[in-house]
From TrEMBL:
This is F-box domain-containing protein. It comes from Capsicum baccatum (Peruvian pepper). Pfam families: F-box, FBA_1. It comes from the Eukaryota. InterPro entries: F-box-assoc_dom_typ1 (IPR006527), F-box-assoc_interact_dom (IPR017451), F-box-like_dom_sf (IPR036047), F-box_dom (IPR001810), SCF_F-box_component (IPR050796). Residues 380-389 have a biased composition (Basic and acidic residues). Residues 380-399 are annotated as: Disordered.
Length: 399
C-alpha cells in the first residue's frame, strides 16, 4: 500500500459504499482519520451524488399504516421481478406511532412522529439528532382588529435541505394564517444543524399550498403558492443560503395545465404539468409534461424532458411524481397516484410497471443514497462520530 500514491487511495475509497468505509475505519488509524475527515466526506458525497442509485435506497412511507419501508435496489432491471420492501426500524418509533418523512437530502432524512418528536437521521451511519419541539407560534389565534371576523385557515408548511454556502443543513418551518378579509400573516423559523438553534427567518409573502412540505433541489426549497387569495398558482422558492423567498417563473411554453406537482430529479427541480382533453362524454385522456430547472433562478434554463401520454388500456391518472433516473439514465422512475411505480423509457416513450410487493396501496416515496454526512449539533461533533463508529444507532443529541 505504501507504493500507492495517497491521492489514488483517496480516490478509490471515495467511490466505495458507506458500509465498506465503516468497516475500513477499523483497518488502521490512518484510514479512520482519512474517512472521518471533512474533505473526504465531501469527496465521497460528490461521488455518491453522481451515481446515487449505486448505493441508494427507495424509502416508501405507507400512508395507511404510517410505517417506513426500504427497497435497497430499485433499478429497472431488478424491478422487473417482484421485490419485497423491508420495514425500517427508525429512532423515532413510539407505541401506536405514526411517522412522517418531511424531507430527504444527501443521505439524511428529516422525520417526525405523532408525539411531536422531530429529528434528522443518517440511515447509513445510523446516527441521528433529535430537534427540540417546534418553536412557539406567535401568530394570533383570533383575528387582530381590522383583519375580519374569523380565521379562514391556518397551516404549517416546511422543508429540509442543504445550504452549500455555509456547509449547513437547515429545517424550515412556516406558519400561516389567513383571515376573513383576505390578509395573510406568516411566520418563518429556520433551524441550523451546524449551530443547533432555531432563529427567525424572513416572513413568506406568498400563500403556500396548504400543508405542503417543500421540495429540495440544488440549494433551495420550492412550494406552489399564490400571490393573493384568488390569484393564479405560482412557484415559490426559498434560497437556503440567503434565506430569501422569491417567485420562480414557469417555463414559457407551459400552457395552462389542470394540475401541477413538484418533485426532484437528480439535483434539479422537476415540474410535472398534467393536462387533459375530452375524447367522449365518458372518456378523458390526460398527459403529463415533465420539465426540469437546470439553473436556479434562470427562467431560460427550463427544459422539457418528455411527455407521458395516457396509453391505451391504462387507467386514468391524476397525480404523478418523478423519483429517480435509472442507472443508465435512459429511464425515469415515476410514482403514480401514490399507488404504483412506473418506469418511463425516453426513447421508446413507453411505461412499464415496477413490481413491488408488500401490499402497499397508498404511499409516498423518497430516494436516499448512502453518505458519511455527520450530524453536528451545538458542538457535539465528537459524540455523533462516536455513535457512527460503534454502530449501535443509539447516539442522540438532545437539542
Amino acid at each position: 500500500m505504501s507504493d500507492i500514491p495517497q491521492e489514488v487511495i483517496d480516490e478509490i475509497l471515495s467511490r466505495l459504499p458507506v458500509k465498506s468505509l465503516l468497516r475500513f475505519k477499523c483497518v488502521s488509524k490512518s484510514f479512520k482519520s482519512l474517512i472521518d475527515s471533512p474533505k473526504f466526506i465531501q469527496a465521497h458525497l460528490k461521488q455518491q451524488s453522481l451515481k446515487p442509485n449505486s448505493d441508494g435506497k427507495l424509502l416508501i412511507l405507507n400512508k395507511n399504516q404510517k410505517k417506513l419501508f426500504s427497497l435497497d435496489d430499485f433499478n429497472s432491471s431488478i424491478l422487473n421481478t417482484q421485490q419485497q420492501p423491508q420495514e425500517l426500524e427508525h429512532p423515532f418509533e413510539q407505541p401506536h406511532d405514526e411517522i412522517q418523512v418531511l424531507g430527504s437530502c444527501n443521505g439524511l432524512v428529516f422525520l417526525s412522529n405523532n408525539v411531536c418528536e422531530n429529528g434528522i437521521w443518517n440511515l447509513s451511519t445510523k446516527v441521528y439528532v433529535k430537534l427540540d419541539r417546534f418553536c412557539r407560534i406567535s401568530l394570533p389565534r383570533v383575528p387582530p382588529k381590522g383583519e375580519g371576523k374569523y380565521m379562514f385557515f391556518d397551516q404549517i408548511c416546511g422543508g429540509f435541505g442543504y445550504d452549500s454556502s455555509h456547509d449547513d443543513y437547515k429545517v424550515v418551518r412556516i406558519v400561516q394564517c389567513v383571515f376573513s378579509y383576505g390578509n395573510l400573516l406568516s411566520e418563518t423559523m429556520i433551524y441550523s444543524l451546524k449551530m443547533g438553534v432555531w432563529k427567525d427567518g424572513e416572513d413568506c409573502p406568498y400563500w403556500l399550498v396548504k400543508e405542503d412540505f417543500g421540495t429540495y433541489a440544488a440549494g433551495a426549497l420550492y412550494w406552489l403558492g399564490f400571490k393573493e387569495s384568488h390569484g393564479e398558482l405560482i412557484l415559490v422558492s426559498l434560497d437556503l443560503g440567503s434565506e430569501r423567498f422569491e417567485q420562480v417563473l414557469y417555463p414559457e411554453n407551459l400552457g395552462k395545465p389542470c394540475r401541477l406537482n413538484l418533485a426532484a430529479l437528480g439535483d434539479c427541480l422537476c415540474l410535472l404539468a398534467a393536462s387533459g382533453h375530452v375524447v367522449t362524454r365518458m372518456d378523458v385522456k390526460n398527459h403529463v409534461d415533465v420539465w426540469v430547472l437546470k439553473a436556479y433562478g434562470v427562467e431560460q434554463s427550463w427544459v422539457k424532458l418528455f411527455t407521458v401520454e395516457q396509453l391505451e388500456g391504462r387507467q386514468h391518472f391524476s397525480y404523478m411524481r418523478s423519483i429517480a433516473y435509472s442507472m443508465t439514465g435512459g429511464e425515469v422512475l415515476l410514482e403514480m397516484d401514490n399507488r404504483k411505480f412506473l418506469w418511463y423509457n425516453h426513447e421508446k416513450k413507453s411505461l412499464k410497471r415496477a413490481k413491488i410487493g408488500g401490499g402497499l396501496n397508498s404511499f409516498e416515496s423518497f430516494v436516499n443514497f448512502g453518505t458519511l454526512v455527520p450530524l453536528y449539533g451545538r458542538g457535539n461533533e465528537k459524540d455523533s462520530k462516536k455513535g457512527a463508529e460503534e454502530g449501535d444507532g443509539s447516539v442522540t443529541d438532545e437539542l
